[in-house]
Every structure is written in C-alpha cells, then in structure tokens.
Write a structure and sequence with these properties.
59% of the residues lie in helices and 1% in strands. The protein is an all-alpha fold and 389 residues long. A hairpin with a 2-residue loop joins strand 1 and strand 2.
C-alpha cells in the first residue's frame, strides 16, 4: 500500500513543483482558472469533479485526498498559492498576485518571517512591495487568518508539506516518498505528538515540541526526576481512564472533580480542581523569574515556556526545573481527592535546590549555581511563612 501511495504521490509532487511542464500544463488546462497547486493544498473534504472535467486529474486528486484522509492531513496547507486559488477570489481577479510570484511572494507561507505572520513593512522591504499593496496585504492576512487555526504562528510542517516540497529528482523519487511515508507511519514520537495535539486541542508547533523532547533529559540532572518527565511525555502513567479500559469495574471519572474523564491531560492540567494550584505555581514562578507569564499547557506538561516568550538558557532551565516539581507533586497525590497545596510544591523545590547546590559544590562550580539560582534563593529567603493553601 505504501508503494502504491508513493507511486501516485510522485505525480502530485510534480504537479505541485512543475505546473509548467507539458503534461502538467495539459492536465492543469482542464481546471479552468484554478491552479493545480491550489487544489492540492485545499482543506478536505472537497469534490475534485467540481473543479475539473479531466478524469486523469480527477483520479490523481482523489488518490491524494484518500492519502490525506488516511494520514489525517485534512487541513489547509500554507504552501497554497495565492493566484488562481478558488478559496481566495481576490487572487483570481487581481493580476498583481501573479506578478508577485516573480519576486518570490507566491504562496501563503511566504508571508511568514521567523514562523510569524510578517508585518507589511517587513514584507515591503523583503519583496520590494509598494505602499499601494497595503490593501492586498490585508486581503491576504484576512484569508490566511480564516484558514489557519495557529495564526499568526506558522503551522508545523506536516507530512503533506514535506511530500509537496520533496525535491523532484530524475531517479529515486518514488523511493524517497516511500521512505518518507514509512517513517511517518512508524515514528512513535510522531504518534505521541499527535496524541498530545488531540488532547490539548491545538497544534503544537515544531519549536515547542522539539524543546519538549529535549526537556525529557534536560530538566534536571536527577535521573529519577527525568524518568517522571519521560513517563509524562509518553503518557505511561496509569490514569483511571486507562484503567477503565482494562478493568470493567473501574470508573473513568476523576476522583478530584468527580465529573470529567481522568485521562492524562485532565490529571495534569485541565481538572478544575487544579486551577488554583497552577495559578499559584505560575504566580510564584513569575515572581522569581520576573516575567509576566500566564498559566499555559506547554509549561505545565512539557516544562517549556509558551510560544513567543523569550528567556535566557539559564531561565529556561529554571522554568523547566520548577515545572517538573509541579508535575511531581501531582503524581505524589495522584489518588488524593483534595486540592493540591502550593506550600508542598515550595518545600519540594527548596529541598531539591539544596541537593542541586551539593552537586555544584562537588563539581567545584558553586559560582555557577548562584548565577542560575540567585533570584529564587533571594525570593525564598524573603518568604517569612509558607502560603496556607
Ligand atoms: Zn478532575
């Protein structure tokens, strides 16, 4: 089956990258006023016969749609062109969008700089636009905003994008596509990412996910604590939701709130009985890091700051270390029916800070310890009593 996909996707890849070759032009000719790349990057589902009367093109689009449905690649792609795109009528009526192609401004992803939707001034400089293009910029921005759930951030590169962007070569093209599909199908890390994306309910951008993977072994030097993060990221902990699938007499509801399903995202983050705990944890972290940060799932689960927050490496390490203790405390009270106490989190943190200090002392780098942890030590020294909740 993978070979069948790869053989057919080779034609899709050529149709996207070389729409001006003779056979692509002949096929594209049947799609009146609509470009083949636009059809290849549209959100599913759509009916190919609505746009073409050519049975060959219709069949290729049908196979491409089947592939995308199988691999859950239904979303609109940022590789979509602006001109002759049925979803963007302005691009069909205004010839300027065709002229923009020669400057390199041809598809939606070209409007992003450093993975963020760019300002008009930055695009103007990069692509030599004129002031009169401002209205077109707003048209494009509105269009992309309506298609992308991650706007203004660039969505992560999907398997679909990788296939479309795969360089066309005279030999080995099908093998390259075959390996790409096989890798995506068998990659357990991608499956875990998919699960978290579904649980969180929004796209995890590549940068955040890469940091999350690094944090499995990069949050602390204590092996047992690293193991906690490994088990969290790989959803290894037994929640009541998981147990209820194994034992029919186990209910899947959360012991704390007694209402929602106790799956892993609920146990660590979304349970309403954890709201106060997370709010206080973030308030404390914001105090010693001196950063206005709001509770976010990326930090609560993966120990990385939310997208757009820039920290020094030392501060990132502090953030991850502190975040890991939040999850450890939840695990220590996994079966408790009571809300968690922030005072316990502070005690854990201070205890491990002492151990961290011993580690730096033994390595002869106590200066480095103080350089990293000074703001936290100063904060805790000023604290006269532990919070009551
Ligand atoms: Zn709950």
């Amino acid at each position: 089956m993978v070979y069948y996909w790869a053989a057919n996707l080779q034609k899709v890849n050529c149709g996207y990258n070389f729409p001006l070759t003779d056979w692509c032009k002949a096929e594209a000719y049947s799609c009146t006023s609509i470009s083949l790349p636009a059809l290849l990057t549209m959100k599913l589902p759509f009916s190919p016969v609505q746009y073409t009367s050519n049975p060959v093109v219709s069949s290729t689009l049908k196979i491409w749609s089947q592939f995308r449905q199988t691999y859950k690649l239904k979303d609109f792609s940022m590789l979509s062109p602006l001109s002759n795109n049925p979803l963007f009528p302005a691009g069909q009526m205004d010839h300027t969008y065709v002229q923009w192609q020669s400057t390199g401004l041809a598809k939606c992803s070209d409007f992003y700089i450093d993975n963020i939707f760019s300002s008009f001034n930055d695009l103007r400089q990069k692509f030599q636009l004129t002031q009169s293009d401002l209205f077109r910029y707003f048209q494009v921005r509105h269009f992309i905003q309506s298609q992308s759930s991650t706007f203004p951030n660039l969505p992560p590169t999907s398997l679909m994008d990788k296939i479309l962007q795969n360089p066309v070569t005279p030999q080995g093209q099908i093998s390259a596509l075959y390996n790409m599909i096989l890798l995506a199908r068998n990659n357990p890390i991608e499956k875990i990412k998919e699960k978290w994306t579904k649980d969180i309910g929004s796209v995890i951008i590549d940068e955040i996910w890469d940091d999350a993977l690094k944090r499995v072994n990069g949050s602390t030097s204590f092996t047992r604590l690293s193991l906690i993060q490994f088990k969290v990221l790989h959803c290894i902990y037994y929640t009541k939701s998981k147990l209820s699938k194994i034992y029919s007499n186990v209910e899947d509801s959360c012991d704390r709130c007694k209402s929602d399903k106790a799956d892993i995202i609920h146990m660590f983050w979304s349970c309403q009985k954890l709201n106060n705990y997370w709010a206080l944890v973030f308030k404390l972290k914001a105090s010693f890091i001196v950063l206005n940060t709001t509770p976010c799932v990326e930090n609560a689960i993966f120990g990385v700051p939310e997208h757009g927050i820039h920290l020094t490496n030392n501060m990132k390490n502090v953030f991850a270390f502190a975040s890991l203790f939040s999850r450890r405390r939840i695990l220590l009270e996994w079966k408790s029916k009571n809300p968690l106490k922030i005072s316990m989190w502070i005690c854990d943190f201070i205890l491990f800070l002492k151990l961290e200090k011993i580690k730096y002392l033994k390595k002869g780098s106590i200066q480095k310890f103080y350089k990293i942890w000074k703001p936290m030590i100063a904060y805790f020294e000023k604290m006269k009593t532990l919070p009551s909740n």
